[in-house]
């Protein structure tokens, strides 16, 4: 049984496809842009979760400790989601994953702590919302650097050396196309 709303829904869906179709066609032939888009979606969710956790911890903790705890809790989740969703799912070398996780936490802890300390030096008494906003902005800059590290080092897409005749130069370690749907 179809209702009167079904036609409106179909027209809206067709409108969205017509509007976004050229974007999807442009991105479909560019694996790096697809990965960057997926990484940005994961990063946006992780940044939002980090901001929420920061604001939850902030009434009991100073800005820097609240940020570091929120950061530690969101980094592992963000890295795993990026691995699965943005970079096609294959595991990187364990040492690379470990170094990347530790390096990411250390980088963001130092980077965001400096940003918070600078905010406190420039502003007499910033509110937790202002602190969270500065952390979100800092996360955008750090996220681009992290994407490059993940894309070109941790989830290295260059072919591995091997003798599989199906893959000249070796079997690829990581896919540059979308991960299979489940």
In short:
This protein is 73% helix and 0% strand.
Write down how many β-strands occur, each being a DSSP E stretch of 2 or more residues: 0
**Poorly predicted tracts of residues:** 174-182
Q: Name the overall outline.
A: globular
Helices, by number, come to 5
Q: Roughly what is the average pLDDT, rounded to an integer?
A: 75
Rg for CA atoms: 21 Å
The helix-and-strand class reads mainly alpha
Major beta sheet, specifics?
Answer: none
In what range is the share of β-strand residues?
under 5%
Series of H and E elements: HHHHH
Estimate the helix proportion, in percent: over 70%
Report, as a whole number of angstroms, the end-to-end distance: 29 Å
What does it look like?
The chain is an all-alpha fold and 182 residues long. It contains five helices and no strands. The relative contact order is 0.12. The C terminus is likely disordered. It comes from Pseudonocardia kongjuensis. Belongs to the GtrA family.
Tags for this model:
182 residues; transmembrane; GtrA_DPMS_TM; transmembrane helix
Provide the fold topology:
Elements: H1 4-28, H2 31-57, H3 63-86, H4 94-122, H5 128-154
Helix pairs in contact: 2-3, 2-5, 3-4, 4-5
Transmembrane segments: 39-57, 63-81, 102-122, 134-154
InterPro entries: GtrA_CellWall_Glycosyl, GtrA_DPMS_TM
Keywords: Membrane, Transmembrane, Transmembrane helix
